[in-house]
């Protein structure tokens, strides 16, 4: 995955950001490659985001690490007992996840944080492979409508069936059928913990804590 160059627009953007970082990250060496998911291989909860942030994961080399969305996410995972610390600034900062795996629908930072449907579909093979490897997972938590759409398009999420897709909503909960060796799972949806959503109050810590508590129950 780290050598993937299937999406020319994303390849160009991730390199451009690395070559012209903001003053706050001047002189830092950027990862500027696709990102793998990370966490507990025996995770019961899989958190699926949109894509790496240009100066977050694209810089640090780990999903949600070094950006404001990650600050919100890891603080919540810590409160719920899925993470050993509240903040994550670098890949070697000691963060460990217990019972959780964090990944994204698209693995490279997109311009304006907006991947295209084609880029989503091109990256789908990586998300699919992760879900097949995470055999203990029982809950998939989609952060935002884009992640929800990416998950729903995977045959293993729909159990290989042509099911009607429910409209995205915060708190949406869907029981997923089994698919081959993939066991039955539950799909939960949340607003994405972007700065805009958090600052406007569309997503609050309380709202997210309640979803994680529900995920804990469903994954027991």
Characterization of the model:
This protein is an alpha/beta fold. It has a single domain (44-218), classed as Uracil-DNA glycosylase-like domain (Uracil-DNA Glycosylase, subunit E), CATH 3.40.470. Helix content is 33%, strand content 12%. The protein has seven helices and six strands; from the N terminus they run H-E-E-H-H-E-H-E-H-E-E-H-H. The protein has helices at residues 8-19, 57-60, 68-79, 117-133, 145-152, 195-199, 205-218, and strands spanning 38-39, 45-49, 100-104, 139-143, 173-176, 185-190. Strands 1-3-2-4-6-5 form a six-stranded mixed β-sheet. A hairpin with an 8-residue loop joins strand 5 (173-176) and strand 6 (185-190). The protein is globular and about 50 Å long. The protein starts with 7 loop residues before the first helix and ends with a helix.
């Amino acid at each position: 995955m780290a050598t993937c160059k299937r999406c020319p627009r994303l390849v160009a953007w991730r390199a451009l950001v690395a070559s012209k970082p903001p003053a706050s990250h001047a002189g830092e060496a950027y990862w500027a490659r696709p990102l793998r998911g990370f966490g507990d291989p025996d995770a019961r909860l899989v958190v699926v985001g949109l894509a790496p942030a240009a100066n977050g994961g694209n810089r640090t080399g780990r999903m949600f690490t070094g950006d404001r969305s990650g600050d919100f996410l890891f603080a919540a995972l810590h409160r719920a007992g899925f993470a050993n610390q509240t903040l994550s600034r670098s890949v070697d900062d000691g963060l460990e996840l217990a019972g959780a795996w964090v990944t994204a629908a698209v693995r490279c930072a997109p311009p304006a944080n907006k991947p295209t449907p084609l880029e989503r579909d091109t990256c789908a093979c990586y998300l699919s492979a992760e879900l097949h490897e995470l055999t203990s997972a029982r809950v998939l938590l989609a952060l935002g409508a884009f992640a929800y759409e990416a998950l729903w398009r995977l045959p293993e999420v729909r159990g290989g069936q042509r099911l009607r897709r429910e409209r995205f909503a915060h708190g949406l909960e869907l029981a997923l059928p089994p698919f081959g060796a993939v066991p039955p799972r539950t799909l939960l949806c949340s607003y994405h913990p972007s700065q805009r959503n958090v600052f406007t109050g569309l997503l609050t810590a309380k709202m997210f804590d309640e979803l994680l508590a529900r995920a804990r129950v469903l994954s027991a």
